[in-house]
Structure formats: structure tokens, C-alpha cells
Amino acid sequence: MEVINTLGRRKASVARVYLSEGKGKITINGRDLETFFPTKPLQYIVNQPLELVEVAGKFDIKINIFGGGVKGQAEAVRLGISRALLEVDPEYRDALKKEGFLTRDSRVVERKKPGQPKARKKFQFSKR
Question: Which end of the chain is more exposed for a tag (fewer CB within 10 A), N or C?
């Protein structure tokens, strides 16, 4: 099996996922999963698609990630892994789709407008 290359995005985070056959090692920006995402909930988010289709430990995953915060990065990785698993076996589509792992969450922070303190907040209006 050749290396499968996919992309996952969430908020300002972009994750490039390279999936290949192996022993289940996940490397993110040159570090292993436990050092890059030290908390259990973030590690759980990353491993969700692998656990769902019961292929944990069958693939080596190398991830390059940049931008955003840790939660957005974890969710970007989850989307990238889900898309890569879909290329490995299209049979996984129903299970991944049902859990919502193939849906790109497109919500991003709204930009700040000029003449306002924030995106929607306005300065106090004074008639006189």
C-alpha cells in the first residue's frame, strides 16, 4: 500500500495527514501523539476514527499541522484521518458519516470591522 495524503481543516488549523501501513505509530510535527497532545480528551479525539472502524494499530500516521489552537488542531487531525481511512476502504463511509467525522466544520471567527471594537459589538451611541 502506498502513502495516502489527505487534508483536514478546522477553524484556523490545517492538518496534512500521511497514512501508511505500519504498527500504529502516530507522529505529529516530528513528535509522538502523547507529547503533542498531552491531555486524554485531545488524544481521544484524534483516535476516534481509528477506534470506530477498528483499525487502531494497523497504520502509521504522520501529520504536519499548523495554525489555530489545540482543540481545533485535534479536530482537523480527526477529519484528515477520517478522509484517509475512506481512501483505504470506501466501506468505512457509512460508519464515519454517521458519527459526523467526514463533515468539515466550517465555522471560523468573524473578522473585526473598522469603526467597531469587535466583529459585531458597536461603540456606545450618543445623541448629544
Answer: C
